[in-house]
Structure formats: C-alpha cells, structure tokens
C-alpha cells in the first residue's frame, strides 16, 4: 500500500523563472525565425509598417526576459532551496550517481521503484538542466554580441567565444534548435513522469508542491 | 560630376590642391577636427618621415593595386609621396640583388625607425617553404625585419588574419602577422582589398601623432572599422521596412531593396565602406547590387560562406549530410519526435501486457 504525502518543492521564484523562460523561449523562437528569414514582403512603400524592427524589438524584449530568468536561476542554483541547488542536480556524490543510473534505467523501462523518486529533479534531468543552463549562457552572450556589436564588453566576449559576428549568428541559430528539441523532450518526459509516478510533477510547477509516495509498513 | 571615364590627359603628378584634398579626406575619415589638417599636412611633408619597407608574401597584389588605382591619381600619388618606399617589390625600380641590397641598407640605416607594411599571409608549415623570396622563406624575412621596425601595418585580410590561404584546410599553415610577431606594435587594415583611405589614415595618424590609432579587439583601427556596415548602409531603410530582394534580378533587386535575403553579410561586418566608398566614383559592393561578403572579418572564407546564403551549412557528424541549419534542425526534430513516439508506445504496450497478466492472476 502506498500513500502520498504533500511536500513543498519549488519556491515561488523558481516557478516564476520557469514560466518566464517559457514565454521568452516561445517569443524568441518565433521572432528569431522571422529575423533570420523574413517571410513577408512589404509591397507598399512608405507605409511605415517596420515589420523587421517590430520583430527585433520583441526579440530584444524577450531576450532581456530570458536573461533575467537565467540570472534568477543562477541565484537559485547557489542560494535556492535543497531541490534547486546545483549540488542536488549533478552526479557528484555516490548517491546522486546511483540515482542518475537508475533514472536512465527507468527511462529504458528497466527499473521501477516509485519510492526512489526524488523530491527534486532526478539527476539525469538535473544534469540536462545544467547543460541547458550553460547553453543559455552562450545564447545570451551571442545575443548581446549580435545586438550590441560596438559595445566593448560584448565585443570582447563575442570575439573570444565566436571569433566574428557571422559565426556568432550561426551558433545562436544552432542553439535555438537545441532549445526547441529540449522543449519537445522535456514536455514529453514530464507527461511520462506524471503518468508513471503520480507525484503531481506537472502541477508542482504551478503550485510548488509534489506528492511523495510512501509505503505503509 | 567630374568625368572619371576619360583619363586621356591623366596627370600623375600630385599638385598642391590634390595633396590638400587628400589630407582633408583622410582627416574626415579619421574623424579629427579640421583644425588638425595643417598638422597632418606638416607631418606628411616633414623631412623626417620614416622610410617604409613593404613586404609581399602570400598575396595577389590586389591591395597594392587598389592603392595605386590610376582612376584616382591623387590618392595613389599621395601615398607614394607621403611614404618613402625603400622596398616594394611591385613598384620599385631595382631588381634582383640590387633590390635585396636596398632592403638590407634600410634595415641597417633605419633600425627601429622605419615602418614595415606586410601584404599577404605567411605560411609556417614545413618550415615555411611555401613562400620564398630571394631564396629565403617568408617566415625568415619577417623574423628579420619585424623586430627592427618601429611599427608594422598588416594590409589586407591575408596579412591580418591569413585570408584565403588560411581557409580550411589551410594547406600551407598560413598565418597573419599578428600571430607571428611579438614586441613590435602591429595594426591590421583588413579587407579584400582594404580601402586606401583606411591605410592612408593609419599612416598619417602615425606620422602626425607618432603612435598608431586606437584599435578594436581584432587590432583594426576604430576610425575605419568601428562601425557596422549594416548600420550605415544606404539600403537600411528597406531592411527596417521589410522590403527584400528575394533573388538577383527580381523586382526587389531592381528597385534597390535590401540584400539581406540573398546573403549580404553587412550585419556582421565592420568597415567604413558605406561612408568612404571606393575608387573616387562613390561605389561599393552593396551600392551596385551585390551583398557584402564580410571581407574585413577574421576567417571570412570559412565563416561568411556560402556568400549567397544567410547562414553557413552544417555537417551532421557520421552521416556525411551537409545541409542548411534549418533543414538539419527539422531532421533532428523529426528523429526526436519518432524516438518519443516509440518510447511512449513501449510504455503503453508494457502497461497493457502487465494489465493482461494481472487479470490472469486475479482470475
């Protein structure tokens, strides 16, 4: 017999971070595709529609939202609650490493023990989020370098990381595809976990609470 | 408009008017006050001007050609008048041993005082045997001349960053001057070819202020390479308004719309081309309907190609597929979706099998 205990997992700041990121990513992807290859043609000259500038403005605004969200996540990685900190996301301890292996096995349908489900991220997910976090830092550096090319600081960062603007644009575009594919896998695995473990992982990103399974002895 | 097509009575002599005009143009390009023009003129006519050694390595002489364009004798003459060229393989009268002797004489006589201009990349692979002059490798010549120079001006993208010689797979191990020289100040005037005004501005700046102009992170003078082409482009209004040439020769192209969608690299390139322009007839690539290829940027043969596409192609490792970014992204997304589908199907299948088993157990 298993009963479920309600536990507070995600702070309000983390939930705000998550949904800011969702909004930012959708806006950035749509406007990003448009800026890369504008699919409209303004036929009426002098009409003052400025579609490219409108898209670039939205892209910039969403970029600042994305940056703010990533900065919040950086703060939480260092000073967040137990589930949110970097040490509970990476396979750096023996316990975490075992959890990562078990998570991989569970995803291959080779392992199934609901009581082993962690309150926070499983370590496989945690590691993926840290990799995504690093990708986001590159995306931010590339974005600011492309937007403020004459700013000495961003020029130094951009030239060091990407060598020139065109290469930065290329990497920026490739990383966008990383985020698209990440989103597909993330949404699928969240649904999978919800159905598998019944711990309320989907509602937890709205309410902050999960349901932890316990065996009655 | 002056007639620039008929050079029947081409006067190669630089008169005072042309000289002052040239100095004024350079002052404008440098962005310095007109009150400084007399000082520029003074520096340019001073008897203590440093001699110049001009080294040619792996190059096409296009940079020299561009400087000496006969369509504007003023600028070409001005350069030759201002700098006292002691060694320049293309324009010097001496040849063979005489030429090499004049190089040695300048090195001995003006050690630490002369300006060194390098045109072309330097191959370092296999002990530098891929570029030799008078039996000596480019690496050796540069190693001898560079430490004795007061400053080095790398003219053109090859001398600055290796240029086309350094494009992948870089068979001769070509490198730019800044990668090989330390201790002597190096300034880059990249471009394929660079604008003569940018070169002249750097020289005059050095003569007037006794130091090289301020540079960006890539060693290029900010007065010429500080602004992005896209931000000063005459077609920028079309970009903002969303009017594009979809392909060469179409309605948009004929009406002078933005060349962004046919691969213009102006948004990633730093140069004064849109404001200074070329050849005294006020043209530059974009004004005549061809997109910028980004020739002032490092590794532009590798990173700016394909020239007529927005972004470079990607190689999907292990498959040999070379395709554009978005179709690669869509393929990977497709594979991901299929993997997700299979994963879900296995999960559902397993659950069905288990429930059948449970039913059997119960019954």
Short characterization:
The complex is a heterodimer of chains A (217) and B (363). Chain A has 217 residues and is mainly alpha-helical.
What does this structure look like?
The complex is a heterodimer of chains A (217) and B (363). Chain A is 66% helix and 6% strand. Chain A contains 7 helices and 2 strands; from the N terminus they run E-H-H-H-H-H-H-H-E. Chain A has helices at 12-36, 51-79, 94-107, 123-147, 152-162, 165-197, 201-207; strands spanning 2-8, 209-215. Chain B contains 16 helices and 11 strands. Chain B is elongated, with a radius of gyration of 27 Å. Chain B has helices at 16-30, 37-45, 62-67, 73-82, 96-109, 138-145, 156-161, 177-180, 196-209, 222-225, 229-232, 236-241, 251-254, 273-276, 300-303, 325-362, and strands spanning 51-56, 84-88, 115-119, 122-123, 132-133, 136-137, 151-155, 174-175, 186-189, 313-316, 321-324. Chain B folds into 3 domains: 16-225, NADH:ubiquinone oxidoreductase-like, 20kDa subunit (Rossmann fold, 3-Layer(aba) Sandwich), CATH 3.40.50.700; 229-310, Cytochrome-c3 Hydrogenase, Chain A, domain 2; 325-362. The A-B interface holds A 36-38, 40-43, 45, 47-53, 107, 109, 149-150, 155-156, 159, 163-170, 173-174, 176-177, 180-181, 184-185, 188, 192, 196 and B 216-218, 226-228, 239-244, 246, 252, 260-261, 265, 267-270, 294, 297-300, 303-304, 310-312, 314, 325-326, 328-329, 332-333, 336-337, 340, 343-344, 346-347, 350.
Radius of gyration of chain A, Cα only, in angstroms?
A: 21 Å
Instruction: Profile the largest sheet of chain A.
Output: 2 strands, antiparallel
Number of domains of chain B: 3
Oligomer: heterodimer
Order of strands across the widest beta sheet of chain B? Answer: 2-1-3-7-9
First-residue to last-residue Cα separation of chain B: 102 Å
What CATH architecture label of the largest domain in chain B applies? 3-Layer(aba) Sandwich
The dominant shape of chain B is elongated
Supply the CATH superfamily name of the domain at 22-37 and 50-109 and 123-196 in chain A: Transmembrane di-heme cytochromes, Chain C
Residue runs with pLDDT of under 50 for 5 or more positions of chain A:
none
